[in-house]
Amino acid sequence: MIQFRLRGMIATAKREARMIKADKNILLIIILAPLFYAFFYTAIYYHKVELKPAVILVDEDHSGLSRQLLRAYETSQYLDVYVYPDAGSAQKAMEDLDGMAIIRIPAGFQSDRQSGKRVTVSLYLNNAYFLVSNDINKAVNEVTATFGAGIKLKILESKGENREQALAHIEPISVRIHALSNPSESYGNFMIPALFILVLHQTLLIGLSESMADERATRSLGELYRTAEGSTWALVMGKGSFYLVLYCAYAVFFLTIGLTFFNLQVAGSYLALAVLTVLMILSVIYAGIFLASFFTRKIVALQILAFTTYPIFLASGYSWPEGSMPVWLQWLANLFPGTPYFQGFSRIVFLGADLEHVLPELFHLLLILALGITATRLRLPKIAKWQSEHY
What we know:
- This protein is 68% helix and 5% strand.
- The chain has 391 residues and is mainly α.
- It folds into two domains: 2-46 and 186-390, no CATH class; 54-170, abc type-2 transporter like domain (abc type-2 transporter like fold).
- The chain is elongated.
- The model has no long low-confidence stretch (mean pLDDT 85).
């Protein structure tokens, strides 16, 4: 029995290879698309962080103290400061996107500070670009706080306090932040590894679905079953073996050479990542064959499944906490292989997790794989029988 299944699987794999070779559309999806899209998408985040965003500064005080604060902003490695003469020209420049924020130093800045009054520097942010605005907000607050602390330090020292006493008065409680993952706080470091996997996930799903939809369109499922010697397991594994080998090779390339190219590395266990990735690929193979069995035209399969890329990624919990999503969406997302995979993936890549730390995600993937196996075993024989009776 095992010998027949292996023979059927090998025969089906050879048939699939011939089919892929003859079908330029599938060949394009599974050979060119993963390489092109993986490096095209990740190239967007090549610099990892935003380059120094343009910030407009309006100095309405024109005093020695305001010029000192201006120089402090200009020396920040995170800001590119442009000085404008008044608020009107600054607002127009921001509307034209010549600057992403406006810093306004008010009139009376120095005199109010010398008289002991609290002074306020206004920051106007273009929050339409929230990543850039967050970085500007952080940089401006850091520079302003440091500058203000420097002024207070000089005042306390002039009153006879030594530097240590003055610093203790300025900041009686300090916070020391330790970034346990992504220490550079870079959005690029966060997105690049996930984009590699997302491209693999979706091109595999679409390419395999195209192949299976073509079987239905050409009414060749009966022939496919005969090639697999009547075994659904041999059919699925034979049809999927080419994709399994190819996409495992892609995964090794992207998670080693690809990450190295972007100066990234996997913090955790490569063994855990390998096991998780193989299970994900197998789950997508079964899911792709099952889903495509409902399509009788390749173009329809392509059109529908191409739109699942972002929903699958967004619902996975990688870019937005799963617990903050509606409950019904959480239940739906748990049916996708990408959900447990991305959760385990982020823990391995960023937090240094080992195999024992991602066991819940592994069991989740095994459950999805078991559902996929059951669904295909129930679905495919019925379609093959229906085709043989009607054509």
